[in-house]
Design goal:
homodimer; alpha+beta; Arc Repressor Mutant, subunit A; Chorismate lyase; two-stranded antiparallel sheet; 31% helix; DNA-binding
DNA sequence: GAGTGGTCTAGACCACTGT
DNA sequence: CAGTGGTCTAGACCACTCC
């Protein structure tokens, strides 16, 4: 076994057994290298393994620390029914809370919201999902929800709608109307669309360089990719959203009810 | 920007634009180092970034290759209802297929299955979920499902049952009876338990060294963690499973039906 | 055996952070 | 300014794969 792996193992063991506690600072690299009788680059290699596993954080000019678990945001599948119920409520009630607040339990005033709209054409992937020809005009909406300035977004969302469908209500084409009270399901309600079901497809991978930047991810954190496909009561796909969530502070919850014997 | 980042960017760009095609071999490190006028360790640092992002694979003694996407296994939430329906079918029918076959579309004979049982005591975490005192005797069952020798398992599963509940049927305590025709829901059926719902909680993170080993994960792949909580018709939690899935070839699908207006 | 990636060294210099 | 991590070098030797 390589020297750097032995060292990584030793440190890993220390962290797992609690000898090195969360938040604790490790000795300087030079000192650690001396303790393990190795060179600094080799010791750094060992540390970089632990960074990749999400066990430690390195802070330039400060030190290396045992990572403390982050507070998790739960995103439950009953949000969809909750959103649907809310879509036909009076405006005052819709104003009060959005889905993120439903998930996090935070107040509206704690959250900052950013939206950007543009027009695109359906690529092969989206055309297949929507069941429309490649090149069909789509409205692409990009969202990010932050916890009031302080730190990185909870989620990066790219949402797609068929342009000609939503154009029935011109207000839906303008990002300036965001955050729309009552969310997308209320927007769809204004043009006579009711949702029948929501399908969500989930996978995970390491972040790209851009995602790490945008979501403020440290190394050693995964990205959860969630594609949400909303189908209307007429069986047509109405909205497709690609959501990227930080793996270290997101927990998705799905409940499947079963029919009785 | 660091030299190694510039190099990583250049290669990343080549891969994304398709100039470097999936499966294609990159020049040897020494040659690449020469091309980018840098030392071998620095070039290696650049490559290791791309490995961490899952863009390339290094094979010792062979070369460095652009990674080709892996075939995905879809795990759909309707498997639960499917399993429930199957649990009361005749033995012959139950023998024919298991859930993994349902997910993958493969035949029973394509799959190898390994199970191991042991007795443990509930730690704080499991005790909370089951709603039993810490230290309660549990039956811990460990499963792995492989695609017939060839390569790494689809999933590592640790499943927990309250020991005294399942002891009503001693056959359920013996791993030698696996794979049990009809799966866990049929096992529970033999002791008079019917499931009411299944809750699944999902998160993702980089693999630990052990998981990378057990799931045969290359570097630069995430692990999806799925905790499945099965609740009986009497409202008690019956089974808790912790499932670890390779992020590069697993897609989870959940469908949420909505009630009509 | 030729060619590939894997590991390691010893030291240099740079960049960032906090006092 | 002292102390920390970040980057880089030039070269050595090892281990693996395939012919």
């Amino acid at each position: 076994m390589a020297r750097y792996e032995q060292i990584a193992d030793a440190l890993r063991h220390g962290i797992r057994t609690g000898r090195l506690r969360p938040g604790e600072r490790l000795p300087a690299e030079e000192r650690l290298a001396a303790r393990y009788r190795t060179s600094v680059p080799t010791l750094q290699r060992a540390l970089s393994e632990l960074v990749a596993e999400g066990l430690i954080d390195k802070r330039h000019g400060v030190g290396t620390f045992v990572r403390t678990p982050r507070r998790r945001v739960v995103r439950s599948s009953d949000r969809h029914q909750w959103e649907k119920d809310r879509a036909r409520r009076p405006r005052a009630e819709r104003l009060r809370t959005g889905s993120t607040e439903h998930d996090t339990g935070l107040e509206v005033t704690d959250l900052a919201f950013h939206a950007e709209y543009r027009e695109t054409k359906a690529d092969e992937d989206l055309a297949t999902v929507f069941g429309v020809p490649v090149g069909t005009r789509l409205l692409e909406r990009m969202y990010r929800t932050n916890c009031r300035e302080e730190d990185a977004p909870f989620a990066l969302v790219h949402s797609y709608l068929v342009h000609d469908v939503v154009a029935a209500n011109p207000d839906l084409l303008d990002a300036a109307n965001e955050p729309w009270p009552g969310g997308t399901q209320n927007q769809l309600y204004t043009i006579g669309i009711e949702l029948d079901r929501v399908e969500e497809r989930i996978t995970a991978r390491p972040p790209t360089a851009e995602e790490a930047e945008a979501l403020g991810l440290r190394k050693g954190v995964s990205v959860i990719l969630l594609r949400k496909i909303c189908t209307g009561t007429d069986g047509r796909v109405v909205e497709v959203s690609d959501v990227r969530l930080p793996g270290d502070r997101t927990e998705l919850v799905f409940t499947t009810p079963l029919t009785r014997w």
